[in-house]
Amino acid sequence: MHIQAYLPRRKAPALQIALAAVLALALATQAQAASHDNNVEWDGLFHDQGPLYNSAPEPTATQTITLTFRTYKNDLTSANIKYYDSADSSFHWVPMSWVSNDATGNFDYWQGTVPASASTKYYRFQLNDGSATAWYNAAGITSAEPSSGDFFIIPGFKTPDWMKNGVMYQIFPDRFYNGDTSNDVQTGQYSYAGQSTQKHAWGGSVYADNGGSNNLVFFGGDLSGIDQKLGYLKNTVGANILYLTPIFHAPSVHKYDTEDYSTVDPAFGSNALLQQLIADVHSSSNGPRGYVILDGVFNHTGDTHQWFDKYHWWSTVGAYQSTSSPWYAYYTFQQWPGTYSSFYGFTSLPKLDYGTSGSALRQQIYSSGTSVVQTYLKAPYGIDGWRLDAAQYIDAGGNNGSDAVNHQIMTELRQAVKSINAQAEILGEFWGNANPWASDGSQWDGAMNYDGFTQPVSEWITGLDYSGNTATIPVSQFDSWLHGTRANYPTNVQQTMSNFLSSHDIQRFGTRAGGDIWKTYIALIFQMTYVGTPTIYYGDEYGMQGGSDPDNRRTFDWSTGSSTNSAVALTQKLTGIRQQYAALRTGSFMTLLTDDNNRIYSYGRLDQNHRIAVALNNDSTSHTVTVPVWKMSMSNGSSVTDLLSGNQYTVSNGNVTLTVNGHYGAILAQ
């Protein structure tokens, strides 16, 4: 399974079990449920590193950190913070004090302060009711002290605020919009590895004719087309971060086989046009100011790159041509020239050998002022971040990464990026738990969230994994999966994880959903209200279909791409809601309800200004849902507004009751 951690069942006295059966009376009786009875009531415990519970989620070395913990009223006799300090490799204790009740009188708040220092720390809570003890950390609640899964304190580690607060849009350039037909690759324009290019009409098949290479099928999408559609991206969709798959010169349509890092592929335009596109994204005259992330393919090059030059396309001498090539050490040959390390065994993608710190290749890719990484971060380009393709594999000696050398390279790359722009984003591609790269502030800011978003969302909503295989999970397991994967990362990393329904490497969500647009609706509602950076793979906003590569890279249907389409209109409304409420971007996340029988999921997002309860119905028919908003300290008689329908509801007996359509949701704001 992909679940990283489970929330244990709480220990509960008979009274609490009875209360669960009469949830409608929860608010009236909840204050009576807790007492000093040598039993810690697990249901009342809550802490995360949101702004209500952590005074400094991104502390400096001189900031103290005041931590707040919530319990049922009168439940605890004492509470402590226990933290591990990397400075002395020892545990330390901080006693907590009761400070207040919540507005409903159901909960107590306890606080303690961790002293300021520059060292990384990891903390958990010890919670006591007389002789009974419970432990609480990011992984969950246990009766015995945990040995892992603690919350993080990493002084000096800051992830980009614009990434936390933005909505990202991923484009595969050849398939988005053809803004300049003069640079279209024509049928037979050139050959590569014995295959010729093919030009297909927009909307046509992505598969090559007559047994040709799918990687040489072109439709004509380009940077000019993207520039012309910025109004759609910024104002209709509501996305302000543009992530482009590779745009540098390469023979294939996907450009992951780089031929020249210094040149924009002529089929996409020119370096001057890239500068113009970036400037237009950054401009606020055509919509909100935006940001640009480029795809950095630094694990391997294409075999046509000047450094390798398998086909003698360059006047210089590449590593494939001579062991005396100045770039011979950039690759790892087992038997020169025909046997060499490559990406996943694709000989067209020879793997780069980064050697030791300070090597010529490291200088070329990221270390020097004229390196690839630094050049595009600087004027006249000024991109805002890099997405690192196949980042786990970047290494020396033909090895496949995920070792000390890989982490050394990632640390050096971060230092290079941040030296140019401290607010630049470093987004790593990793399909599992990216904790080794994104947990201590030394390497990535975030990662492609296959493990903590794409896979569980697909399994819960569509009953298929992201590869299209049958995999169905109930909502309780969905919630546990989400909780476990959030626990892998500091909160500021969670908030910059890229949460996407589809990507250029997996089946389209719309296909996994069987073409049911309502499943796209509920997925969009969850995507825009969950923790992380919502990332729309072009066309997902209208439920674009597509199977495995290359079918997941179809051309955009511009007859559908407008707010007259119901899914696009919903996307526009959701991105607007997310922008309006900071609680949906950086607030706490609290599970409110999991109902496996009716496939109902409800959770809260909250900060000092707003409390928002989201209710999702993943069933095919409508259900009446009773949302226990008392868990978010919403008071009886107060009102909430569904930001999707405009309907208002009154909190009664601690709950809000409403009807939610099948495969849809409600966003109840107060």
TrEMBL record:
Signal peptide: 1-33
SUPFAM superfamilies linked to this entry: (Trans)glycosidases, E set domains, Glycosyl hydrolase domain
Keyword terms, alphabetized: Glycosidase, Hydrolase, Signal
CDD domains: AmyAc_CMD, E_set_CDase_PDE_N
GO biological process: carbohydrate metabolic process
Pfam family, one: Alpha-amylase_N
MF term (GO), any: hydrolase activity, hydrolyzing O-glycosyl compounds
InterPro entries: Cyclo-malto-dextrinase_C, GH, GH13_cat_dom, Glyco_hydro_13_lg-like_dom, Glyco_hydro_b, Ig-like_fold, Ig_E-set
Residues in Glycosyl hydrolase family 13 catalytic domain copies: 170-578
Protein name: Glycoside hydrolase family 13 protein
Organism encoding this protein: Dyella tabacisoli
